[in-house]
């Protein structure tokens, strides 16, 4: 045995015994408890024809919001514990997604943090900060069929806080009911509480359908006019052989929100459809179509179009991309998208001239990893080098 390995032997023996003891306990408890520490990193380069200036975020700044500036979407670490009676999750994240889309300080680096306990068989209560229950797409590229998210997804909430009732009456059906502080907020901005629901049903092991909603009035204090919002979402995820399909749509109404008078009900709708074809085990291509129609601008914003009309955003978009996965835990993607506003809405700028079309291209590289598994693997290798036998 080398001098270096002899010096490491006492520490390795101690760590080996501790790991052996912990593994023994885990073998007795693994049917009722688990603990994980995982990480995720996504870096990108993107280019947008909309000229917003160096250092600024693009319009609809959710994923890859900086143009012509290689940057980091997210670097995050997640800790999760689950047992037969209690569970908890905490996720910290840093990068452009946290800066561009998340809650203001002091919570902008806290993606989620919640704890729960089992009330009875199949019923749990959780409380704290959650990622949103709402919508068709997820936000993170590692979770989505595409890297970017649709404009409709951009205007959905990314996060929420409150209480959650989680009920799984059958292996195929899951029901979640939420009492929330508000629409896309951790800290309440008034004394009114909101409600939300999420229902998913597994059609088979190939996919399922779901419905999510939000009901609440997030008007700031001092505003006596009701702005009750009822936001609905339906989605379908299914896989046909090598083809994955994702389809979803939103329909939202809000009281006293029309652009003309502010005294009538206004509505918004959006939809998306994504197809991904797995050409080989490592290579896939995908495409997405999307629409977003908010004529009263209560979710997007009000602008004056070229005809002098006060209106909200109305647009359509098309996305094409390719994905290469060096390993199951990593990906490299090349993606392009075109966003086309209504013919009278010139909200983009290119070469100092107003435009109603924006072109985008982005390259993403991402990896997810199990930190505890990596530590154990390194320890096992070090133990083998030291000549320690089981």
Q: Key features?
A:
390 residues; Porin; two-stranded antiparallel sheet
CATH superfamily: Porin
Largest sheet: 16 strands, antiparallel, barrel
- Residue stretches low in confidence (pLDDT < 50, at least 5 long) are 1-31
How large a portion of the residues is in β-strands, by DSSP E?
A: over 45%
Strand runs, count = 20
Q: Strands of the largest sheet, in order across it?
A: 1-2-3-4-5-6-7-8-9-10-11-12-13-16-17-20
* CATH architecture field: Beta Barrel
- Integer-rounded radius of gyration: 24 Å
- Portion in helices: 10-25%
Counting helices, strands and paired strands, the structural category is mainly beta
> In one word, what is the shape?
globular
What count of domains describes the coordinates? 1
Please report the distance between the alpha carbons of the first and last residues. 17 Å
CATH class: Mainly Beta
CATH T-level topology: Porin
The average pLDDT score comes to: 90
> What's the tally of helices?
4
H and E order = HEEEHEEHEEEEEEEEEEEEEEEH
Task: Provide structural commentary.
With 390 residues, the chain is mostly beta strands. It has a single domain (42-370), classed as Beta Barrel (Porin). The protein contains 4 helices and 20 strands. The strands form 3 sheets. A 16-stranded antiparallel barrel has the order 1-2-3-4-5-6-7-8-9-10-11-12-13-16-17-20. The chain has a two-stranded antiparallel sheet with strand order 14-15. It has a two-stranded antiparallel sheet with strand order 18-19. A hairpin with a 2-residue loop joins strand 18 and strand 19 (353-355). The longest helix is centred in the N-terminal third of the chain and has 27 residues, at 3-29. The protein starts with a helix and ends in a 5-residue tail after the last helix. Mean pLDDT is 90; it is low at 1-31.
């Amino acid at each position: 045995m080398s001098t270096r390995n002899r010096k490491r032997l006492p520490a390795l023996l101690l760590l080996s015994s501790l790991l052996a003891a912990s593994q023994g306990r885990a073998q007795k408890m693994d049917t009722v408890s688990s603990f994980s520490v995982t990480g995720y990193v996504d870096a990108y380069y993107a280019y947008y024809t909309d000229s917003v200036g160096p250092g600024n975020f693009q319009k609809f700044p959710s994923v890859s919001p900086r143009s012509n500036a290689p940057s980091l979407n997210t670097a995050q670490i997640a800790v999760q514990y689950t047992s037969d009676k209690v569970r908890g999750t905490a996720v910290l994240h840093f990068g452009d997604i946290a800066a561009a889309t998340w809650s203001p300080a002091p919570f902008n680096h806290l993606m989620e943090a919640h704890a729960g306990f089992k009330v009875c068989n199949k019923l749990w209560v959780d409380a704290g900060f959650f990622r949103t229950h709402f919508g068709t797409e997820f936000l993170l590229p590692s979770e989505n069929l595409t890297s970017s998210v649709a404009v409709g997804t951009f205007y959905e909430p990314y996060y929420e806080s409150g209480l959650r009732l989680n009920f799984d009456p059958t292996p195929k059906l899951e029901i979640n009911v939420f009492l929330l502080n508000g629409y896309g907020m951790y800290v309440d901005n008034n004394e009114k509480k909101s409600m939300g629901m999420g229902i998913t049903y597994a059609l088979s092991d190939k996919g399922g359908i779901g419905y999510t909603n939000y009901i609440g009035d997030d008007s700031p204090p001092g505003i006596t006019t009701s702005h009750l919002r009822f936001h609905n979402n339906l989605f379908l995820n299914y896989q046909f052989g090598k083809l994955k399909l994702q389809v979803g749509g939103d329909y939202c109404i809000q009281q006293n929100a029309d652009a003309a008078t502010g005294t009538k009900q206004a509505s918004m709708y959006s939809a998306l459809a994504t197809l991904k074809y797995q050409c080989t085990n490592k290579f896939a291509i995908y495409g997405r179509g999307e629409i977003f129609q908010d004529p009263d601008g209560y979710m997007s914003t009000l602008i004056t179009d070229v005809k002098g009309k006060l209106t909200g955003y109305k647009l359509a978009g098309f996305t094409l991309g390719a994905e290469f996965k060096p390993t199951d835990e990593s990906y490299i993607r090349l993606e392009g998208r075109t966003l086309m506003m209504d013919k009278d809405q010139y909200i983009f700028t290119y070469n100092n001239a107003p435009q109603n079309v924006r072109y985008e291209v982005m390259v993403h590289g991402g990896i997810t990893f199990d930190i505890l598994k990596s530590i154990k693997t390194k320890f096992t290798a070090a133990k083998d080098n030291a000549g320690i036998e089981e």
